Structure formats: structure tokens, C-alpha cells
Fold each of these.
Amino acid sequence: MNGRLLFIVRLAVKNIGRRYQRSLIMVGAVAFAIFIAIYYAALTEGLLANTERNAVLMESGYIQVHAPAYLEEHDFYQMVSDPDRVVRAAATYGLAAAPRLFGFSLAALGDNSAGVEVRGIEPSLEDQVTRLSAHLLEGAWVDQRQGVVLGNRLARKLGAKIGDKLLLLGQAADGSMANDLFRVRGILKPVTSEIDQGTVIMSAADFRRFFVLPTGVHEMALGGRNLDRKSLASISAKLAGRLPGLEVKSWRELSPVLARVLDSTKGSLFVMLLLIYAAMAILILNAVLMGVFERIREFGVMRAVGLPPIAVFLLVLVETAILTLLGGGLGVAVAVPLIIRGETHPIDLTALAADASTIAGVAIDPFWYTRLTWEVVSVPFELMIVVALVAALYPAGHAAFIKPVEALKND
């Protein structure tokens, strides 16, 4: 059996060499399809990774902890009273924890005003969970000296510039009037629609002085290490068990629309691959079938000298498999270096993006990176092999059951 299979492989290689022009056309077509499929998959993975990174590392963190019902009501007095307990629980799983405070006020600058959400943070702890501080458009990040950082669209709406004094007016926790001037230290690049349109960020110390709020926090954002989907769900569940009386939610639960968009976008990748390979299946079917018709006499001679139908059938499949492997290997060899380069040298789309584009409210940078993973290469390659072999079944079956007498009469 092994000897017969080896004979079929050798014969297939010789046949490919004898018809090198047709072979080169098929190898080139397969290489082009594989290249397009792999590169498209890498671009899609890059877009998804960039969007998730912006959602998680620029704003929410992987997991958030709140007092019960805070997310539904946003009650200023619903707070996590013992944030240190959350810090200790998070550290058990290698996560950093950043406290956040939220309040609402009126912001005014010159003749312009807007209702804003004021966010108080601990800058050093926030940097362990998110990369928001590195997303400045201009100016400097929050410090402890009564300075604030504004969302991108809010700054434009107020006409704010670095160094301007911003008036904040609101109600303090003790019922008194909260009002003070804060110097604009920085303006953010587009991050999320919520931050861009109406967020003022200051230090937690300034927040507590302004709102007269000595203790407690509204939110604990956890991060500091990469969590895949499985780890995220597992650690969220374990933290919920360790923190009774508090609400623990992952970013996927906090942003279900974004999570569904990312999942559906990844699913659309397979739809696109199927469309590409459906076209390739027709091309391969046509190429192999034409090759069979051109070699009817040859197959008739094979059958006449005693080669069984299964051997002829396998011969056509082996030829198709070899050509597909050659084309696939060539496509991978071209695509992978380009993908690796695209991880550090993205496609610049700034000329096409007058303003920030968003997916489910999360800003997308106008630089399209690629992302190389094992699945990006293996899935299109393996699917191409399957499609090619399936497309070759009919021509192979036709060749296998050619009648020698009729084949030898063929011109």
C-alpha cells in the first residue's frame, strides 16, 4: 500500500512538471487567495485588538467593582466604603486596583458652559490599570495642584486651551455649594464618546476637596495584566465570591454592545473567508476538470494497463493537494513578513478620517495595525486545503471511472 501511494505521489509530481504552465497558473491563484485571506484576517485581528485595547486600557479596565445599584442609579452617595479590601482581593489574582470618584457639575469658560462629569483619580494607581495618561493630545497629565484634563470634544466646545482657568460649579456632599477655578493642564485625544464629550479629570485629592467627600470611592477599576476571555470570566466570578456586598463586572458585561460588535466582527471574518474560497473552489474545479479532459487518453492508458479507479482518483487529488500546498506556502511566505511589518508600521488613514471614528462609542485610531497570530495563518491555510480537495472530488471521480476503450478513441 505504501509503495503504491509513493508511486502515485511520484507520478503526480511528474505530471505537474510536464504541465508546468497550467500548474503555475493554479499555484499563483492559490497563493493570491491565501495572501488575501491571511492579510485580511491579520487586519481584522489588528482592528479588534486595537478597539479592545482602547476600551479596556484607555478607560474601563478589565474589571470594575461598585456598590450595589450604583451602575443603575449613579447615586453620588452609593460608594465602596472599604477600597482596601478590593485592593487586597485584586492582588490575589495579580491585578492592580485604581480608585475612581464621580460627580456632576457645570463647567464654564468665558461665554461657554456645559454640564460635565467630574472624575477623580489617583494618577499613579490609574497608570497601573489604564494608559489614559499616554493618550494626551496636548499638555500634561493630572497632578495634585488643582489642574484638570478635559475630554477632546468638551475642550473644543468650551474653547479651552492649556493654561485657561475653568470654573466648576456643583453641589458638595454636605449640601453646600461647590465652586472653584481649575487650570486646564491637558486635553485628551479621542478615547470614548463619554470621555470626549463631557468629562473633566482631576486628582482624587482635588475631587474630595471640591465635593467635600472625605472617604469612600464610587468605582474600583482593576487591570495591570492581560486577561483573555476565559480568564476574564473566571477571575470576575472569583472576585465576586471574595467581595460579598459589592458588584463585580467585567468589561464585557459593562459594555455588552461593544462585546457583541467585536464578536460579530470576528465572525464576519469567517464569512469573508468562505466567500473568497467559494470563488477559489470554482476556479480550482474548472482548472482540475479541464486538466482531466485534456488527459482523457492518458487516464485511459492507465486504466488499460491495470491501474485501478481508486489509484486514478488519488492521483488527481494528490496533484491538486501538491499544487495547493505550493501555492499556500508561497502565499504565507509573502503575507507573514508584511503582517509583521504592519504590527509596527500601520496603514495611515488620517487623510480619510476628518474626525475620530468609533465602534460602539470607542474611538478607533486612524492607524490600522495588523496582528499576527497562529490562527490568522493556520485557519485560512487549512481551509484552503479542504476547499481545494473538495473542489477536486468531482474531476477526480470523473477521471477514475473513464472507460479505457472510449478514452483511447478520444482525440
Amino acid sequence: MHFELKAIAQDGRIERLDVQATDETGARAQATGMGYSVLTLRRRAMLLSLWRPRSERFPVLLFSQELLVLLNAGLPLGVAIETLAEKERHPSVRAILNRIAGALRQGRTLAAALEQHPGTFSTLYIATVRASERTSDLSPTLTRYIAYQYQIDAIRKRLVNAAIYPALLVLTGGLVSLFLLLYVVPRFGKIYEERSTDLPWASKLLLYWGQAVEGHAILVAGALAALGIALWYVLTLPQVRAGIEALLWRLPVIGENLKIYQLARFYRTIGMLLRGGMPLVPALNIGAELLHPVLRGRLARASLAVSEGRTVSVSMEDNGLTTPVALRLLTVGEQSGNMGEMMDRIAAFHDEEISRWVDWFTRLFEPVLMGVIGILIGGIVILMYMPIFELAGSLR
């Protein structure tokens, strides 16, 4: 979710921030952790987030790629960012780059400069850069982050592509059903009304609907539009979305795969942070932001156990944050001392598992959805023609 915050910066300036977090508590914690005192907080409307002009979005991935190229070419960090600002065309992006370059000229680190823009750079990105500053390997860190982002985007695009065809089926079926109910049924109702045919009860319901549409078309259209807007608004409420998510998490197959998807993203993130030189417990705390609240509490208990000296594999297993494969690989990582690479392998294995499940679920769900839509449209058509069938039977 996106949240808009009005906060007081450390230098006394009042700024507006755009923060991405799972809930209001997380958004407030992000701003507070960066030195801001939050005055007001509100959730950004979903439609405004979707229609936000591209020129206002800072291209973090493109920025990382271009910065990596300039650093590998031998340019100092400050000069590289100034070069990116000079060639940038969008004023808002150029302003951010100039502020980052100005902070570097004042002697701040890159992570500290990025912290001044919490709505632009995620906590994960800032933590990754800060870890690289301890080991002076910014270029390898940017390389790892770019690879990480490509892998995350690949899984996300796969899920989105799997949802496109079912969404088109639902849209087409809904439009056909509305056409039948709003245009065809009222005309059939006129025919049956004039002939005073003895209609079945289900066909009478369609007749009454047709009469209502014919006599009060504007009122019916307004009621349908209001119902659609109300339904959309209800679905955007955090409480309703949380309830739907909780219901999905309780479903046997879907809930388990949602957990695996979250754990795959979590392990990939922790692996990247560990390979960048960040200690394990701080990396776990940063990775908590990627988890569903159901798993976040478990991770807090596991992180506490790790800080008390217990092994990662046992702590994760005791709190339900592993799978059999993940547990074995975590054990191997502890024995070899290469925990970052093992977590990357866990994420890669579960990404493949999620991809296979998405393919299987799509192949199963699409025919079922087509069948449901076909039954709905076919039922409306049969109810319209049922009196004609009965009349033909009586003539025999």
C-alpha cells in the first residue's frame, strides 16, 4: 500500500512523503526510523496510485543500472550522479538527483542522501547501499540488487500474466450478461406481456426485471453504477482487504502457496543483504517488511531466538518459516558458512515451485471459470426461451 505522510524533517522543514508499506504502522515506523516526526498520515487511493504519471516515478532500477555503468567506467560517485542529473529530462527526477549530489558534496554518505527521499527509495534499497559502504563494494552491490529486482519482477509478471486471461473472461461474461439483462430481456418481456403467456416463476422474474428496466432505465442504470462504485470502494478498504487476505491464507492449497511465495521473496532478500555484508539479525528485521502480518510475528520470534544464539535453521523451523527443502539448505549453509548463497538457492527453488503451481492452477481455473460463465449466460437465455419451448410442447 502507498501512504502519504506530512512530516517534520530533522532540520525543521515540513515535507510530504510517499511511503510504501503493508499498513499504517509500518509506514509510520519507516518515516520515524529516517528521522521524521509524522504529523499526518493517510492512505493513497488505489486509482491515484495506478494513474500516477510516469514522470513522477523515480526509476530506481534504471538509476541503479546507469550508476553501475558510470562507476565501472571509473567515475567517482558524486560525479556519476551529477552526470545522471545533467542528462535527465524529467524535472522531478532531476531535482532528486541534484539533492543527492548536493548531499554527497556536503560529506554525507550515499545511504544518508537516499534516506532523505523515503518515498523514492525503499528501506531495502537504502539498507543495501549502507551495507555496501561498510565493505566499499558499491558496484557489486548494485549488480546484486539489479539481478534481485529482475528476479522479483519476473515472478510478479508471471503472476500478472496468469491473471489476464481469467480477468478477460470475467469482463466479457459480465458485459454479455449485462447486454442480455438490459437490452434483450426487456424486449422479450414485451412479447410475453402482450401474449399473456403463463410464464414459469423464473421467467416471471426476468419479466419483472425487464419491466423495471423498460420503465425506469435511468434509475436502474444509476443503481447499477452506484452498486459498482460501492463494491469497488469496499474492496479498497484496508479492513476488507485484510479480511480477504486472511480468508485466502486459511484456504488449504492457496494459503500454503501464498506462504511459499512470501518466503521465497523473503529468502532472496535476506540472501542479497547477507552477501552485501549486512549482519544476519538486522537483515532479518529489514526482510520483515516483505512478509504478511501472519508471518511477521513468527519472524520476530525467530529473530529473537537467533540473537540469543540459536541456529537459523532451528529458529526458522520452530516458527514455521521453512519448508523441508529450505530447512536442509539452511543447515548446509550453517555448516559451510555460506548462508547468503544458500538463501538464494532456497528462493530459486521456491520460485520454480510457485511457477509450476501457477501454471497448474491456471489450467484448472480457466475451464472452471468458462463453465461458470457459460452456465450463467446459458441460464438467462434458457429462461427467456422457456415459454416458447412450453408453447411448442402444448401445440403438439
Amino acid sequence: MVDKKILILFILITLVFSILVYKPFDVVIAGPQMTDIEYFKDELQIIENSTGLKIKYEIYSDIETHLANNHNTDIDIAIIPNPQGVINLGERSVVKSINNIISTDTLNNYYSKHLQSITTSENSIKNYGAFFRLFPNSMIWYNVDKYNDIGSPEFQSYDEILEFTLNYSKKNNNLWCLDIESGASTGWIATNWLEDIILSEYGPELYDEWSNQNILSSEKKILNSINSIGKLLFIDNAVYGTNKRVVRKEFRNNFKNLLSEDVDCVFSWAGHYASFYMPKDKTFGIDYNFFKFPSTTNSNTSIVGIGDILTVLNHSDPTVKVFNLLIDDSFGKEWMNKKDATYIPANKQNKNLIMNPLTYKESKLIKASLIENTFRYDASELMERKIGADALWVALRNYIDMGRERAYREIEEITVELDSNF
């Protein structure tokens, strides 16, 4: 009997001690898997050490859908990979406005007007997120040796690219590797090309009108930009495998072929994602490199890109503190110091301490565009999904597959069909 009382007393003491000792996480952050996830966690540890707060990072394959379906959650801060998702969650009261979390002066100091506008709802006039990371899209990658062999040409406009390609291709050399097949999503890479051309040729104002769906794809300047894709792809001998290969071969092929001695192509038109598919035995700056897609009538700093956004679900003191530290212009010093890091802060005041030469070069383009407010987010991600993630993909895929004769004749029919989705 005594032993039983002792056992019960022991269990009670153990439970009380466990409750007193155990401290739940003060801030739970949720978001996607990152290439640099361990470096990000190291940064969170630095915040923990400086604040005394306990922070946890949870990985979700689709954080936006998870939050939309689970309103009762212990998540305090969420990293959302697209602005449209941020506004959707904000308007449904899943994530909170950051207007009372960050001062207007701080927002204006840290972020370009464009980045602020695309996380602000036109309905509620509330801003629901602050950008965390950015990555560039508007890039032409090249094989260094092959590029030197053709005279290391520099291009001031897309027209100069077309002229050089036309002259080079007369020698039956395939200058470009441009495969875009990506399963059911085939066409998203072609939307990147279209966005580059629109921003470069017509500037941020028209780009914004189009991405906001205030003008249709049949508008003359958009029509011209679609045709400009064909002006490159339909040049005889310009593209490895011709336009018919482009929509049928996986996009990852481009970068293996670009660095192959058995394939002619010198260039590939792709965003930051290309760096993930370069052969592991090849080195940036030695075997491959890139230059920014050229701008013509507008600022030469203009660039299209993507990124992710910090949002708040629980407005507590610890959450507000951690949120502000994550966007602070001093965040990420250790992360950026890693030689393989891919972190580019969206805060335009953040000091560029990046050691990775590829990321450093990308970050210079990003920062220049943020300062000039010429950075523009991927337009297809800002549009209604039935357009940007469906109709536009299909329209451009069909356009490329048609070939020169049919495409130039039927382009207006394609855009009329696309506009019916607006």
C-alpha cells in the first residue's frame, strides 16, 4: 500500500516537473522546403540566441492550401511563395494585415513600390505580407567556351539578339537550347519569355496593365511581344531540334546540352532555376555564366523575377518581434556568407555580403531593379490562375508548336481564345 502511494506521488512529481520545465515554441514558422534550409535554420538559431525566444520551422509542400483548409493552427508566421496566395488568404482573414506590424516608413525604406502593391488587396486596401527572398528570371545563360568562340557578343536589345541569331544560323549552327516541356505545366517557361519581352520593350507601366488584366493579350503591343518569341524560335537552324522539339523535350535538357561538346547551342533563355540543373562537374564563371535580358526603351535595370513573402497569422509580441527581425536589413549575414548560398534578400537596404559568385551576380541585378522600382514580379503568377496558370500556358505552347507559317497567320485567333478567359 505504501509502495503504491509512493509510486503515485512519484508520477505526480514527474508530471509537475515536466510541465514546469517544458517550454513550448514561442513562434512557429511554416513554409516551403528551401534549397538552403539548414542555413535558414541557423539564422533562426541566431534570433533565438539574441531574443531568448524558441522558434520552430515546419515544412509544407503547399503551405497556402494547408492554411486555407486549416484555420485553427498553431502557425504564427507563414512563408507564402506567391503574392496572389497572400492576398487570397488575407481577404479570407487567414493571415493578418501587416499595417500594424511594420511602419509605413519602414516599408517604404525596405521595399520597392511594386513589391508593396502586389501584397496589398485592392478590396480591403490592406497589405498582407512583406517579401522575404527574390530570384531573377530575365537571364540568358551561356557556355563560356562556346561564347568566347563566337566572339563574346554583347546585346543592347532583343532586336540585336535576333539579328545575331539570324546571321549565325545561316551557317547551320543551332545557337539556342530552348526546351520547355514540363508535363501538365508546359508553357510556363514561355510565359517568362513573354514577360521579359513586354517589360524590356514597353516598360513597367504596360507590364502592370497586362499583369493586372486591365488590357487584353490581343492588345497590339502584347500581340507584338508574342510574335517576338516566334521571331527567335522560327529562325531556320537557330534552335536545337527546331520548334517541334521545344514543346516536347523536358526543360532540364537545356543545361546538359548547353555544356555538351556534342551540341552546338551557346545560349539558353531561363531564370534562376537553371542553376539547379547545370551539370555538377561544371563551375559557374568557368564553364557557364549569364547576362541579363537586355532592356531597350526603358531602364536597363528592369528585370522580372519571383520570390516568397512573410505573413502573420498570430499577432503576438514574440511573433511581431521575430517577423521584424526576419525582414531587417541585417538579417541573413551568416547565410549569405556561405559559398553555396542562394539567399537574395528582398529588403533593398540589406548589405550585399553574398559569397556565392552566382548569387552575388544575381543579387546585383535584383538590387538595382529594386532601387529603380523596375523589378516586376512574374505576371502569370499575378493573374487569375485560370489565365496565368492555364490559358496562357496553352496559348503559348500551341503558338510555338505551330511553326512560322501557321503561327503568324493564326496568332490573332490564339489571342482571341486567350482573351475569352479574361
Amino acid sequence: MIRIGLAKGRLCESAIESFRKLKFNEVIDLKSRRLVFRDDENQVEYILLKPSDVVTYVENGVCDLGVVGSDVIMEREETVYELADLDFGKCKFSIATMRNADDIMAMDSIRVATKYPNVARNYFKEIGKEIEIIPLNGSVELAPLVGLSDCIVDIVETGSTLKANNLVIVEDMYDVSARLICNSISYRFYKPTLETWVSKLKEA
């Protein structure tokens, strides 16, 4: 039985639709409090996880496959195979600051508030800028408003939250989308089956 970890939330709903195209049975009930669902006919078991945990479960071999946003993969920096870009859950990592702020990219050192310290650190290192990371778990948009940071690094989908808080995008960093990931040992063990699934998903 192949075990698949799904990130709870909007990605999960889209992932279920994707697997439906593989003619799998509809066994997942999102209204239930259950976290594990089995499709005995197709020998597939689904586990619903926090997005940040999907990569860890796959990397450690508890799940053979996972569906999670590439933002989580980039931040966790764990070793998994990316089998496919599933072409949903699209957004971007972006740098944003106050609408009338000075040019932050011209500063010698930039205070960056973010939920994604590794992503932010790696990007600014690539472009040769020195930064101070201010890690936050809540609404990062607040940080520039109250003077905690010069800018934020966050995922942006429509930009409406930024606009509502008088923030503007300074620079787009990376594209983000849902990915089908795989444990390295599971890939070798299930390779023919997984290659067939990926081909069908891409066709769909």
C-alpha cells in the first residue's frame, strides 16, 4: 500500500481532485475529524498533515508521496524527490515594504520580517545583500507598519492583503506551486507505478 501525505487546507481539495483523475476511489471526507483514509481497492492510504509536516513525513519514509507547496520544500531544506509540478496553488515569494518607504534595496543592511527565514536568507545571499532576519509566526504585514522591520518576505497570491496594509511589492523572488514529492527509497521501490501516475496527472 502506497501512503500519501496531503497538506491540509486548499491544497488538499485540489490534490483530491487530481487523484480523482487517476480513477482512485473518493475515500477522503474533509468534514470528518479523521486524519487517515484508506482506499483498499487501489492500495492507497492518505494522511492529512499540516503543510510544514508533509516534507518531514516523506523525507523520513513514513509517507511514500506527498502533496505540498514548494514554499514548504524550500523552507524545510530536507531531501525529497520532486516528481511533478501539479500546476495549482500558484503564488509567489515576494519582498514588500511600506508604500512610501525609501529604497530598501539600496540599504547596506535590511531588517526582514518573515515566516520563511531560510528562503529569505538564501535569496538575499544570492543577490549579495546583508540582512537581519526577524522571524515571525503571525501576520508579517504588521512588522513594517510598526517599525519592527524594513520589509517583509512572504507568499503573495492576489496582493490584496498587502494593499489593505499600505504595502507594495518591491521584488518578486520565486514562483510557488503545489508539488508531488517522493521519498527516495520509495521512488526506487515503486518507480514504474509512480511514473505512470505522474504521466496521467500531467495529461489531466
